[in-house]
Automatic annotation (TrEMBL):
InterPro entries: SLC26A/SulP_dom, SLC26A/SulP_fam
Principal localisation: membrane
Protein name according to UniProt: Sulphate transporter
Protein keywords: Membrane, Transmembrane, Transmembrane helix
Amino acid sequence: MSESKFTKFTGITFKHLKNDSLSSIVVFLVAMPLCLGIALASGAPLFSGLVTGIVGGIVVALLSGSQLAVSGPAAGLAVIVYNGIEDIGFFEGFLVAVVLAGIIQLILGYLKAGTIGNYFPSSVIKGMLAAIGILLIIKQIPHVFGYDEDYLGDLDFWQNNDENALSALVSAFENIDPTAFIISIVSLIILIGWNYIKNNTIKSIPAPLIVVFVGVAINAIFIALDNGMALAQKHLVTIPVLGEDTSFENLFVFPDWSILTKPVVYTVAVTIAIVASLETLLSIDAVDKLDPQKRRTPLNREMKAQGVGNIIAGLLGGLPMTAVIIRGTVNINSGAKTKLSAFLHGILLIVAILLIPTIINMIPYASLAAILLVTGYKLANINLIKAMYKVGPSQFYPFIITIVAIVFTDLLIGIIIGLLAGFLNILLKNMKNTYSFDKDSHKEGEPIRLVLSDEVSFLNKASMVKTLDEIPENAKVIIDARKSKFIDFDVIEAIELYSNEGAKYKNVEVELLGFDEFHKKYSLK
């Protein structure tokens, strides 16, 4: 197949091979421990996380319309997976729920349910990005100091090891590993200093890639010196080594279809489908906002891609997947241009498992923590907060509420709270926008002119009643509905009630303009 036919069939192009291939290595290095950590937190076999990372990288990348998103197991699903395995009773039965969840997502894609992603407020999406940035900073600091009790990709405030994000910081300061700290500091210097390099050839190499090599080299030096400073394996990435830990044929677990007769599997499947779809849509929206080229992902196509991905992952013994914002952000920051990067990162996961597991197991968590720390800062920098503040309260309050809610709960609960805050803000704004009144041009003694908005819903009734009640005695009020396309019956009724009864008590003269159409519609006159 020629490159043009391959590109047309898959959407993958090789125009930016250098950028995408280098970026894929960085994404792979970050994704590897995330896959393992999420599997561990989910109470699932370690290899199940790698299966999902591979399927998300290869299959979803081929089918997706997103150029920069990267799919794989998500930290936000860890609790749901853990509870799902417990409710069903065994992992093979849970895999059936994963397959069913994929089928549900595929159906939702064909029903065009993905368009719901277009209704997420921008303030909430930006709040989500900032919150993830803050959590990355907070949660990576322990790894920077060599305190690796929690898995690298955890984003929940409350941890599985009886600690929370803040108590883990205290524990980290009390359990500093000097070598991990040295590697972290050197890594941060490289990552920050890379921005000041003027040589374009050197600068074209992603700084995170150099950081990983330097981290491995520093630890190798300490191993060679045999001075007791070398990192223990618990501070290094650890993936199964074929032939030592397990054989290839024992890596895969397959669904047990006998569970189909039990209702619990369908409940778990629906839960996974809904939560995974929401997290994917949110992540895709966030990645699109970070895309330097501002490309838009076709959301219904993404739902179908995720559905196929989850079906295949479930059939091969993998965890459920979503588009993952951390990997997408690392992908963008590493210079990726197209979906080739995500595809190659999936290939690299296979290569690592089959050919170079011992080399991968030499990578310090401290190096990866430094990469994620800088990624977090880029997501939650002070300029973003200043920009949101300048936009005004209507955007700033949902933005801040989303940040606080995500940081102190988890991603999905925080997003729901943020969406509720955004919805409440719209309601309050809508209630205030009942009419326009030009105070500057109004002169005392002249009629008070209230020009109703284009759309006046029942939410505006309270505002209208309050305004009419505050009109002074012996005044004249003109209520102008000539520009209104819709006025809810409740509002018409309130205005009529005031005009026929309330105004008489204050000797207020009421003139109604443009109400004939609405009177006919509601058969009031």
